[in-house]
Amino acid sequence: MIIGLVQARLSIPDARSLKDKRMVLRSLKDRALNKMNVSVAEVEDQDLWQSAVLAFVTVAAEKDVVEKRISEISSFLRSDPRYVLLDVETRLL
Question: How far apart are CA 9 and CA 67, in angstroms?
Fold first, then answer.
């Protein structure tokens, strides 16, 4: 069993409230869940309006499958103009 973790730090410059931030994050999470076989959670900065840290986790029997999903997640995160991707950290466990 191989576990892949992608931790992404985001800036949401147009968010003027936690409600604005959560709308962006909810959309991002829903699209990730629909497109890829991953779990998503906000893991830091829950109370900050313009900042978020998300963790994406995937599990598979083969390392190649997990590496492919991690690559897809990284590309997916770079595709949305509503936020700025500040940092991406990936790990295989």
Answer: 20
